[in-house]
Amino acid sequence: MAESFRIAIVGSGPAGLSAAGRAAQLGISHVLLEKTDHLSDTIYKYQKGKHVMATPSQLVLRSDLDFEAGKREGILGVWDRQAEERKINVRKNSDVKAISGAKGDFTLTMTSGDTVKAEYVVLAIGTQGNPNKMRCEGGDLPHIQYQLDDPGEYIDEHITIVGSGDAGIENALGLAADLEQNNTVSILNRSADFARAKGANVKLLMEARDNGRVSVYTETSPAKVEKGWLTLETRDGEQRIRCDRIIARLGSAPPRQFVEACGVQFSSPERESYPQLSPQFETTVPGIYVIGALAGYPLIKHCMNQGYDVVEFINGNADLKPADEPILEQKFKALPGTRSVEEWLAFFRRRVTILNDLSMLQMREFMLDSEPAMYRAGDVLVERNEPGSSLFAIADGSVMVEIDPTNPDVTVPIEQGSIFGEVGLISGRRRGATVRTATGAIVIEIPRMSALKLMATVPAAKRAITRISTERQLLQMFGSALSPEDLHEVLETSEIKSVRAGESIINEGEEGYDIFVIRSGSMVVEKAIGGKSVFLSYLPAGSYVGEMALIDGGRRTATVRAAIKSEVIRLDGTAMRKLLESKPELMNRFKSEMSSRQSLTSFVEAKKDGFGGVVDMYSSVATFLLENGIGEATDVLLIDEKLCVGCDNCEKACADSHEGLSRLNREAGKTFAHLHVPTSCRHCEHPHCMSDCPPNAIHRGPDGEVFIDETCIGCGNCQRNCPYGVIRMDKVPPKKPGLLQWLFFGAGPGPGEPSKAWSYKRSDPEKPKKAIKCDMCAGIDGGPACVRACPTGAAIRVAPEEFLTVARLGE
C-alpha cells in the first residue's frame, strides 16, 4: 500500500526545499521528491565556483533554510546540512511521471513504478530541464551543449556563448577567468541591451570585455554552425569566426506536457507561458500548487519565499501576506482609494493592455520595478525634446499628445489601457511631443530596462507594444485623415520581419504586391541597367516601398535590399489595396510617390548610354559610403577633396566651439574618388554608443543629434562600442586667452585645439577624462561650426537620404 502524506513536494530546488523546510518546521506530514541523487539540481548544475546572488536586495528572506549570496558549493553545503538537521523527508531518485486524483486524494507515480499518496501537491520542478534549442543551420551538431558544469575543463578552445541572460554571462566569465586556460571566449547578444540579465553581471561582463578577456557581440545571432566555425548574422552582415564549442543558454520553457497532463491549465498557448495561478499559488486543479521558476519567478529569494508561503496557505494561514507586501504598499500609498496591494495589482493588470497576460506573481515583480502615480488634469507627464526612455502605461483616465509644437491646442488623445513613450523606448530619441493628462489619471512609469525585460519575457506584452508602435508609425507616415479603425485589417495581416544586411525584401522582375515599411535600419534601391546593378536611392527608417507594383499591377521594377541589419513591416497587398480604394487622398499620395520613382528610373535609363560612366561612378560612390557607416547615419560630414585646401579651419572651429577639444579629425577616414568621410559622428539611427552607458548620459536631441551630457563618468564604454572611432576620451583643457590677446600679445596657443604640452601644464591632474564627440553644434547659432568655417564649401553635413540618390546627377 502506498505511503500517504499531507503534502507531496515535487522538486528540491530553492522553492521546493524551502516548502519542505516549512512543512518540517510545522510538523506537517510531507515528502520531498527529487528525481536526481542530490538536492537542488538547478543550483547543482551551476558551473563550479559560480557566485550566486541574493537579489532583490530589498526583499527579506522568509524561509526556514538559510540563504546568502556566495559560492555555489557553499550554498549547497548549507542546504544539505540544514535539510538533515531539520529532518526534511527527502526521497532522492524519485522521478514523478504522473499525478492523478483530486484534492485530498492524489496519487503520484514514479518512473520506477513506486507510488505516493498526498492530500496536496506542490510542483516546484522549475524549467531548466526544458531548454530552448538552437534554431539555425547546423544547430544539431554535437559540439553544441546547453550546460556548463566546470569551466576549468576547457583549455585552449574557441568557445562561443549564445545567449546573454545571467547564465550565459556567468558561463562566459567563468571560461575567461583563468588566463592560463587560454580560451578565446565570445558571447552573442541578439539585441543591443542586456534586458534579461542583472546589472551586476552586465557590469562584470563589460569589464571582462574591456580587459580583452571576452568578445561581446551585440545585435548578433548565429546563422550557421560548422565544425570549427560559426557564421554570425551581425548588424553589418555575415561574419565567420573560429568556434570549437558552443554553449547555448537560450532560456527554457515550462515542462508543459507533464503539467497539462496533471490537468493544470496555462495562461496562453505560447510555449513560454506559465500555469494559471491564484494569489496563493493554486492552479486550476484544486489542491495542486505551483511555485518557483515554473510560476514565473526565477530568482532564488523569491522562490524560497514562495516555498514558505505555500505551506502556510495549505496549513490554513489565509492572512499571510507575501514578503514584498510592505514594498508594494509603500508604492501604492499615494494612489487614491483604499485598495489593497492585491486589488491594485488586479486593477493594473485588468486596465493596462500590455499587462493583461501577466500572472499575479509576475505583476508583483513587475510593479517592484515600476512607479505608479496619480496626476491631476492638465499635468505635464513628458515635455517635448526632453531626454527620456521610460515607457508609460495609462491605468485610469486619458492623456493628450500635443502634436503641433506651435499650437498646444492641436492634440491627439490616448485613452486608458494604452501606452505612450514607445518611441523613446525603442529608438532612444528625445520625446517627440508634450503629453498632458486630459483628466485625472493614474499612470505607471516603466523604466527602460524593465520594459525591455517585459517584452523579452512576455510574448503577449511584446506583441501589444509592437502593434501600438506600428499603428502609430503608419498613422504618422500615411496621414490622410486615417484613423486606427481604418488600419485594423492592415495591422491584422501585417508582419514584422528582421532583414540581414545585404538581404533583399523586393527583387526586380518578381511578382509581389506587398508594401514594406522600414521600421529600423535602412534600405537601398537598385536597378539592373545594361547588365549592371545601378544604385538609385537610399531609404531611411520611416520610409515605405513597393507601391508601384501594388498600384499598376506589374512586376517589381527594382531591387530593394538592406543597407544594414534592419526591421521592416510587411503590409499585405490585398489589405492595402482595400485601404487605398476607400481613401482617395491616400491613393493620390501613393500615386505621387510612384510617379516620382518612375521619373527617377526613366532618368537613369535615358542616361545609360551617353551618361553611363557617371551613373556607374555615382553607384560606386554610394556603395563606398554605405560601407563606411552611412547606412545607419542620420547626419554625416562629407568633404569634397576637389575643393578642400587642407586649411583645417573645420577642426579649429570645432575646437573653439567645444571647450578647446575638436570632435573632428579631417585627415582620418576613407576616401573614394574625391569624396572623403572624415572621423566625425554619424549620429546613428540606433547609436552603438548608447547601448551601454551606466549613467545614461547619452541622448538624442530635438534635431537628431546624439550628444553626451555632463553626467558622463568617463568609463569609456561609448568609445569602445562605437564602430567608427569617432569618440575620444580626454580632459577638458583650461580656458584659453581670447583671440585678440593671442593676435596682439601672443597669449595662449591660438585658434583650435591647444597642444597637449600647453594643456598639461595648466590642467588639474585630478580632473577625470570624459567622452568627447560631435553634437552637431546643438545650441550654437548658425549650425555646425565645421561647415561654417570652411572657406571653399568643401565640408557639408547631409542626411543620407538627401545625398544618396542618383537623381542628384541631374541637378
From TrEMBL:
What protein is this chain from? Fe-S-cluster-containing hydrogenase component 2
Q: Which InterPro entries match?
A: 4Fe4S_Fe-S-bd, 4Fe4S_Fe_S_CS, cNMP-bd_CS, cNMP-bd_dom, cNMP-bd_dom_sf, FAD/NAD-bd_sf, RmlC-like_jellyroll, RnfB_subfamily
Species whose genome carries this gene: Allosphingosinicella indica
Q: Which UniProt keywords apply?
A: 4Fe-4S, Electron transport, Iron, Iron-sulfur, Metal-binding, Transport
Domain spans labelled 4Fe-4S ferredoxin-type: 635-667, 704-732, 768-801
Cyclic nucleotide-binding domain location: 354-472, 478-597
Recorded GO molecular functions are: 4 iron, 4 sulfur cluster binding; metal ion binding
Matching Pfam families, A to Z? cNMP_binding, Fer4_11, Pyr_redox_3
